[in-house]
Design brief:
Layout (H helix, E strand, L loop, with lengths): L8 E2 L5 E5 L2 E5 L4 E5 L4 E6 L2 E6 L4 H22 L2 E8 L4 E5 L2 E5 L6 E4 L4 E4 L5 E6 L2 H13 L10 E4 L13
GO molecular function: rRNA binding; structural constituent of ribosome
GO biological process, one term: cytoplasmic translation
GO cellular component, one term: cytosolic large ribosomal subunit
Length: 177
């Protein structure tokens, strides 16, 4: 059984957290996020920490206890520090660049792939083969990174494609004569 829910979420300086019934709102230097908790979970602000507790003894309350605590922690971390996911592009002629509000990628197709950058997300290409996706909403940052990776997933024979910086591609041996 997970014990993550028992730990209170510390609120750093510069972050304003409000708990109004089932609505939890975090506001910081990077933005503002809010979360509506289910009825089986209660949250309260005590000593500069957000304490999450199950409202009853049901199985759903126990299941959602740690999940709700983690979502609140991600909100507080996001509005204070933000999240970043780095992607790498491998392949001859594969490259990416930010042009205005679009990420333009050349991935071996007959055309350039243009990905519009959503609100609240910052994409940087320091090198033509490196993409950095950052923002204050962890879910949105992960979704955008997954969509970019989805255009050309790394293949196992030559390793060409877009992969996460921490991802390792298991390579396969080619066909033998």
């Amino acid at each position: 059984m997970s014990r993550i829910g028992k730990h209170p979420v510390p609120v750093p300086a510069g972050v304003d957290v409000k708990v109004d019934g089932q609505q939890v709102t975090a506001k910081g230097k990077l933005g503002q996020l809010s979360l509506t908790l289910i009825d089986d979970i209660t949250a309260s602000l005590e000593d500069g920490k957000v304490v999450v507790k199950p409202a009853n003894d049901s199985k759903r309350a126990r299941v959602m206890w740690a999940t709700s605590r983690t979502l609140i922690n991600n909100m507080v971390t996001g509005v204070s520090q933000g999240f970043t996911i780095n992607l790498e592009i491998n392949g001859v002629g594969y490259r990416a660049a930010v042009q205005g509000k679009e990420l333009v990628m050349q991935l071996g197709f007959s055309h350039d792939v243009k990905y519009p950058i959503p609100e609240g997300i910052t994409i940087k290409c320091d090198k033509p083969t490196a993409i950095s996706v950052s923002g204050y909403d962890k879910h949105k940052v992960g979704q955008v990174a997954a969509e970019i990776r989805g255009w050309k997933k790394p293949e196992p024979y030559k390793g060409k494609g877009i992969k996460y910086e921490t991802e390792t591609v298991l390579r396969k041996e080619g066909k033998k004569k």
